[in-house]
Structures are given as C-alpha cells and as structure tokens.
Amino acid sequence: MDGQTSFPLGPSSLTEALYESVRKRIVNGEIAPGEKLTEIRIAGEYSVARPTAKACLERLTALGLLRRSTHKTAVVPKLDEDDIRDLYFSRETVERAAVATLARTATVPPEAVRAQAAMKAAAGDTAANGAFASQVEADIAFHSALVAAVGSRRLSRMHEVILGEVHLTMGQFQAHRTTHPMNVVHEHDDILKAIGDGDPEQAQRLLAHHLDQAQGRLLSQLHRERSEEAPA
Amino acid sequence: MDGQTSFPLGPSSLTEALYESVRKRIVNGEIAPGEKLTEIRIAGEYSVARPTAKACLERLTALGLLRRSTHKTAVVPKLDEDDIRDLYFSRETVERAAVATLARTATVPPEAVRAQAAMKAAAGDTAANGAFASQVEADIAFHSALVAAVGSRRLSRMHEVILGEVHLTMGQFQAHRTTHPMNVVHEHDDILKAIGDGDPEQAQRLLAHHLDQAQGRLLSQLHRERSEEAPA
DNA sequence: GCGACAAAATCGTCAGACAAGTATACTCGT
DNA sequence: ACGAGTATACTTGTCTGACGATTTTGTCGC
Q1: Fewest CB atoms less than 10 Å from the CB: which of A1, B43, B155, B168?
Q2: ipTM of the complex
Q3: Proximity of residue B71 CB to strand D below 7 A
Q4: Fold of the CATH domain A81-228
Q5: Chain B: residue nearest A51 by CA?
Q6: What DSSP line would sit under B77-99, residue for residue?
Q7: Nearest to B191 by CA among B176, B211, B177, B175
C-alpha cells in the first residue's frame, strides 16, 4: 500500500499507529513465522526512532505475538500442537463464560448478528482475492462481539489477547481454506439460537463443539505441513 | 533507603527490577490510590533514566495497576464497585476452569497445600506487624497455585493479571483485617477436598461461594470508606 | 573437521533536547 | 468581587546520538 505519504493515523499517536500496522502484518501472515524482527529493521521500514520501534516490539511480545528473550532478536512464533491446545483451552474458558452469561438473560448481541452477515457474504465469493482474509476477520468479529456484549472490560481484554494469537495461527495455517465456511456460519447460528432461547447449557455445549472443530482443523493442518517439510 | 549503591538487581536487568519494585509498592498500598506517578519522579527515586521509568509505567498500565491517558500523569486507580464486580466475575471465570480441570483428574497441587500452611501460620499471629501482608500473600499464592497446576501458560498469564488487581484492592481496603482468616482457610480446604474427591461440580460451587464471600468483604469495606469521607 | 578466539550485529540503558498537549494560575473585563 | 479567557509551567511524546554488554557469527589454528 501507500507507505510513504503520512499515514491516516487513526488515534492519537505514532506509537499507536506503528503498533497497529506491525500487528496487522503479523496476524495476517505477511511476516512469516520464524522471521526475525529487529528493532532497527522496524525503525528503518517506518522511519521512526529505535526506541519507538522497541516499544512496539515489547507490546507485541507481551501479547504473545512475538517471542524474544533478553538480548535476542524478536521472532514471529511458530505455534506447535501444545500451544494450539493451550490456546483453545483458554479460549474456551473465556467464551464459555461469555455465552453462558448472555444466555442467562437471552441477550443476542446485534454486533454478532452483523458479523454473521459479513461472514455469509465473504463465504459467497470464495474465489475472490482476499476473501479468505475477510472470512477470518468476520469469524474473529463474531466471537469478539459475543464476549464484548457481556460488558466486562477485563474479560474482553483477556479475550482480545487470545484472539490475537488465534488470528495469528489462522493466518499462518489458512485453515479456513480447507473447510466449507458455511459450516462455521451454521454453528454460529446455532449458538446464537441457544442464547436467544435462554439456554446456557446448550449454548456452552455448542460453543465447545464449535471450538473443537476449529482446533481440529488447525491441528490437522499443522500435521500436514509438518509431514511436508519432514525430509530435512 | 540506599539509593546510590548499585541495586542488588535480582533478575537480569534494571528494567525488570524497577518494574518489580514499583509493582510491589503499588499492590502493597505503599503508594496510595489516586496518587500521581510521574515519569520524572520514578526516574529520580530510582536514579534511572526517564525512558526506563516510562517503560515501567507503561507496563504497569497495561496490567491495570495504573491508569493514564495520553499526556496525562499516571495515577494508582481507585477501584469502584463496578470494577470490583467485573474483576471478580473475570476471576471466577478463570478459577472455575482451573478447579474443574484439576478435579477431573483429582490432582491436588502441592503448592496450594503449602500455601495453606503458610496462611495458617500467618493467621496465628494476627497481632504481629506485617501479618496482614503475609496473609494476603499466602491467599494469593494459594489461588495462584491452583491455576498454575493446570499447566496452561495462557490461563496462568490471564490469572496473573487479574490477581494483580485483586492484590491491589486487598491492599487498599485491607479487607482481611475485618474477617477471621481461619474462615478463608477452611473454605480453601473444602475446595481442595472437592478436587481430591474428583468432583468438578462441587469444587466449582465451593469456589464460587468462596469468591462471593471475598467480593462481599471488599464491597462492604468500600461502602464503609465511602460513607466516612462523604462530608466533602 | 572441530573447538576456541575475535569481530560484527543487536540489544539495554543512558543523556539531552524539542515539540505538543494539559493543567494551573494569572490577568482583565464586567 | 467574580467569571472568562489567556499565558505560563509542567508533563508527556518522540527524536538524535552514544556507550557498554551480550549474543551470534565468522575465522583461524590445531
């Protein structure tokens, strides 16, 4: 994109914009897993000072989107099977609480419904370029809306961090390409229905199943890739 | 204290030690809620450069131990009723998942048992100076051990953040002073027993009750303080 | 070919400086 | 005397530049 004209810096500041931009590049897979991100490189690419770049990398590291230890350069993490299981266990913990809470008052978040519409639209033109990315976006938006509707700042904060890593793995494995997006849409619809019916147990059950499916897709994709690059 | 002789910096680095020190001062209530923490003040108190102090404050802000908006001085947050409810809702979400998981395999974490012993010891000499602080420490350690035993890095990370804020409020309200610590000890024991019995439902029930009690103590303490400083 | 030493790259921390925004205090008009 | 607008001081955001420490890489000798 247009990299040199002054950025449309949304919020207040340089640091924020830099962070958002690098974050996007990571979760969208533009920066491959295992790739090294030095402070100098970031500073150079964006024409900012090294301390600014440093702060950016530190923030991303805190969110799990980068790994680095003292005096070593940051790298985009390549999540293994244990990571994915751990990630989905944490995710399930948070989202279970969310859907149960919503179901208790039969509150169907309008934002989630909107995300569903976007997902259906994206599912329509699977051939189109960038359709994959917008599917992932819509999927993330759906789950995000579910948690946001609970109204708990801290739950949302935790979920945001987790979804960041989820987004990262999805971008890396492109698991959505190997499955029919309409299945996901239908599972989402079922969850919304259970919430609307005021049935917390059912909502949790369906959610757990949905997440299990997603985790399974990621794991099988992981194994496939591993077996391909085995002859080293 | 001795500010000029090089610090006995425990871990790797200056930043880390600074962060730990300031964090402790905040959660222990040495820095009162509402108190302002300028970068310059921290830099001066610890004889470090301002960027170092800045990074420290940013980290603490990310953890919810400080609040600040752009171009405004960081302050130690004074949590209101909504905050406490939100905090305990999130806490319950995480710890429920933990005890349920442990109970499913009837795994009683040795660390938690050890924390219980420490708590009993601290409960013995309520009169002693600093006994209150060690009670809180032991309490935190117990719940921390529970979650750590699950073995989920991400769940532990989330819990760590939440416990930071819990620690903060406990230090501020000193709620433990108004209650018999042995009650807390017994509730902990009950939870451990349910885990050992392999009864996830019971463990979750007892945990929820335990957290409800704790939240209630904090809220009543909050109301008491508010009514005292009402005539403004 | 392998291990040890030297060189390069990178990070951690610091000092100093300027711009920009916020909050406070002061002045002026009514 | 009091309120409103402005001016000043304080604090933060960002940059430039630099030095020591540590990790990594590359080379040399055995």
Answers
A1: A1
A2: 0.89
A3: yes
A4: Four Helix Bundle (Hemerythrin (Met), subunit A) (1.20.120)
A5: B51
A6: ----HHHHHHHHHHHHHHHHHHH
A7: B211
